[in-house]
Model the fold of this input.
Amino acid sequence: MRLLSAALTSFRNLRDTRLDFPAEGVALVGSNAQGKTNLLEALYYLETFRSFRGARDADLVRFGEAFFRVEGEVEAQQGDREFDGGRTHCRVAVAWQREGAEKRVSVDGVAPPRLADGVGQLGAVLFSPADLAIVNDGPEERRRFMNILLSLNHRGYLWALQRFRQVLSQRNAALKEARRGSGAEAWDGMLVAEGAKLTELRNRWISSAEGSFARAHAAITGGVGAALEHEPGIPGLGQGPWERDDVEAAFREALQVSRDRERRRGTTVVGPHRDELRIRVGPPERRRDVRRFGSGGERRSVALALRLLEADTVRSEKGREPILLMDDVFAELDGERSERLLTLLMEGSGGQILLTAPKETDVRLPPSRLPRWSIGAGEISS
Ligand code: ATP
Ligand code: MG
Done:
């Protein structure tokens, strides 16, 4: 995929502008607080219709303005799967205004029926120093990682996730209200159906992703082994793969068994909202949970490998070469790991890379691979 152009209006500190991106991509160089991450945030907003930093939409509007708007055009390159209807181009536009907190999205000029139907048009993967939280923080960060990745790459996942969350919150409300009595059971059927779908899709992705994750991790670290493991929040499932019926049966059974516990706690204690994605690093006989035992550098390598895995998922699921948005990636890595990442990017498939760096020396990729732009006080110059 290639991002051809983007037009920005009142997005954070960025000047209103239209940018035409070189085919190879670009390295955006500028000191701290000039707007580098803001630009990647604006571009990735076109992919997910929200801030990758978890910012509220209101905070994305330039101080004192009433709305922001971002528009971008992408083009399928040779080898990329085309868009619906055999089109090679796609134009995505998003606007949000303070009045009524209204968000408008259009894909090729048409508003998708639901926002969920419009996500994932770019095929972009965003690398950020904040990715470390996926490795360091609680299981909810790793679920979030899977949820976003699968929402963007599997039709139907986001829809199932939204329905599951809705049913879960209704069921939990019922449990809280009626600790003694019943009522929660009314939601069990839908909870099981949507929850089993999520569990199965996650499990299938993790199984298929393992090889790619191990390869990416080995490439970054110079050969250190790594493995992903799905620990489902439905006890008694064991390791997959399973049939959908098996998951549903196990989920129903787990709800039955935990009935007393969930009534005491007033919340649903089993289900995919309790999944863990375990990440282990080291040689097969001494593989350790990186969250508990990993060094700072080991964690960084894992975070990077997860994004490289995401890029591979875009390739295999979407049939498209992903656009890599890389926020200050080299600054976080030691010399050797930087060299290896550099080699990966140079020897890779030559997809488009939009990379930010505070100094020219942090760009690492030669200008022949990546043209340079600079940014100062929100103004980008080529
Ligand atoms: P660093 O190298 O430190 O990561 P950066 O170039 O990535 O810096 P950004 O995160 O893009 O910096 O932020 C640039 C500036 O944007 C910040 O100084 C911030 O005050 C400003 N900013 C954030 N939100 C808004 C907004 N809604 N309106 C105007 N300016 C904003
Ligand atoms: Mg930044």
The mean pLDDT is 95.
